[in-house]
Design a protein that fits this description.
By secondary structure, the protein is mainly beta. The chain is built from one helix and six strands.
């Protein structure tokens, strides 16, 4: 899969998934070897999801997500849960992958 094909597959999913009421692509970049996407979604229950992925094409033509962040909030923008792999909690099991819980 190419970087462009991966980006297109994400956008196709956003257009066709019944849970997604609307979305806005904030940033998108693609080169032959890597890419980035950041988007804000409104989900069918009124909650919001903002996500960011930086990814690259591997030598065997697969896509590897290098860094990611998925921030899910209610309609008032109060955190429900966040998933990311930022390396700021090195003592957690599964480092660097971790979650942040809302109230």
């Amino acid at each position: 899969m190419t970087v462009t094909e991966y980006l297109e597959s994400i956008k196709e999913r956003l257009l066709t998934d019944s849970l997604v009421l609307g979305f806005r692509i904030i940033r998108e970049r693609a080169t032959p070897i890597d890419g980035h996407i950041r988007a804000r979604l409104t989900l069918s229950d009124g909650s919001l999801l903002e996500f960011s992925e930086y990814f690259r094409r591997t030598v065997d033509d697969h896509i590897e997500v290098v860094t990611y962040s998925y921030h899910w909030a209610d309609k008032d923008n109060t955190l429900i849960q966040r998933w990311d792999n930022a390396p700021h909690f090195p003592d957690l099991p599964g480092f660097p992958d971790h979650t942040h819980q809302g109230e």
